[in-house]
Amino acid sequence: MPRGRPRVLLDGPIDKWLDQFLPHLSVDCVVFGFHGGDLKLLVVKWPGLDVWTLPGGYVGLEQSLEEAAHQVLRFRTGLRHVHLRQFQAFGRLGRKEAFGRKLFLTRYSDVDPDLWVFKRVVSIGYYALVDFQKARPTTDPWSDSCAWYPVDAHPPLAYDHDGIVGCAREALRAALDVPGAGASLLPERFTMPELQRVHEAILGRPLDRRNFQKRMLDRGGVERLAERRRGGAHRAPFLYRFTVSPDGVGF
Amino acid sequence: MPRGRPRVLLDGPIDKWLDQFLPHLSVDCVVFGFHGGDLKLLVVKWPGLDVWTLPGGYVGLEQSLEEAAHQVLRFRTGLRHVHLRQFQAFGRLGRKEAFGRKLFLTRYSDVDPDLWVFKRVVSIGYYALVDFQKARPTTDPWSDSCAWYPVDAHPPLAYDHDGIVGCAREALRAALDVPGAGASLLPERFTMPELQRVHEAILGRPLDRRNFQKRMLDRGGVERLAERRRGGAHRAPFLYRFTVSPDGVGF
DNA sequence: CCAAAAGTGTTGCAATTACACCCATGC
DNA sequence: GCATGGGTGTAATTGCAACACTTTTGG
Lengths: 251, 251
Hints:
The structure is a homodimer of 251-residue chains. Chain A is of the alpha+beta class. The first copy, chain A, has helices spanning 14-18, 65-77, 98-105, 161-174, 192-203, 209-219; strands spanning 21-35, 38-46, 51-53, 56-60, 83-90, 122-129, 145-150, 189-190, 222-228, 238-242. In chain A, the strands form 2 sheets. In chain A, strands 1, 2, 3, 4, 5, 6 and 7 form a 7-stranded mixed sheet that branches. A 3-stranded antiparallel sheet of chain A has the order 8-10-9. Mean pLDDT of chain A is 88; it is low at 4-8. The interface between A and B is medium-sized, with 21 and 21 residues.
């Protein structure tokens, strides 16, 4: 499977390329975006086999898990400073890596089936919240496409990645009550209804407009700007800005 | 570092022994007990160096992470069905494994410093809640001792294990509001005051006796038995039993 | 009989929920 | 001017925290 920095993908034989990573380990990223009123998920399609997966990557020998996840995000979305949170490690057996070999065979004729990528891989799951507008889904030479899908209607994913997505959504829901939650899914300046749509999409249920606004302002972490959003068909809503980082700490 | 099944520890050379595990990976277990009114932590002392760590182990090539953690628990406490929960993976650089080499040198004169155990190891953190009475802390031939310490006054741990303990306590606190929480720290039958002490120890603050009892009964998951605890100096309290598993699911 | 711990009920506050009214904008 | 969405306030409810009284047991 093609993961990690693209620039080294094509240099030399595969086994040498794999030597730069911690064997049997990977990070998988559940990348959430928000657009058109619902949550989007970034998925990667691999050529030939009609197989989709989460974007992921291997971990360099001298690279922290977090750095590895950031690298995946930077590579797949072009974004550098992304809200990223580890939520679970997935290490049960039967995380079939068999299709990976087929994938390699589409590029290389003779691949050693004993390489660790075809055996068991333990994966550390991260979820990421990105600004849909700024993200530039990037397809590499290995993959057919890298694109957003509605999180409730994405193509079935290989391995146990569907389960990983469910797990990530749960973790995301649980993290929703800290000040600044959902910030990273929106542009820097946003309106209160927009923030509400984000919360509704994550929780999966409608929220009361007025109570929502009150709670957000009482909780702190948001700052109302003088400006309003122009151009809408109705009363112009205020713009807001977050005053805390996505992790709940002040800037 | 001596981890994993004891029976294979002494068979053959170390590098062969290590071949049965996923390289660069381990599980570390934060084992909580409850005794004499406060939380205890199970720690292991390694010989010669005045070094303590959490009980941990490596992950077999055909073993799930959870199985590996269960194996550590079974080995260190003799308990088979333990409430175990993964809470975080620790993979940042600088998790110095240097002392491990010294440890091996106390047993073997010539150890290859290129073995993966001396390089970087990513560790999956599990916390466990065990019945203090039933647990039998077990020292193996490699370690000086395996013993309970008050969680607020345990010897400083090597690596980043002190940080791991803090992380585990936080996860434990967050998991305290599900029905059946704290069950696994007590014997099968327990009194309400006992359960309250557990919650107080985890939260680190006193709780109101009456509100506590009400909440526990309203929430469900506990069942009052006919019997009472005899022999106390005062009014005999009722005995209770949990009707849900530690994970919040009914039996 | 007294001290100390356990069982049960009631009150009051505070946070959340439900709901009503006014304002702005485009067609 | 009217439909639609946005901003603000208030009443109702509920969940939780504070607190009082009774019961049991050993000494």
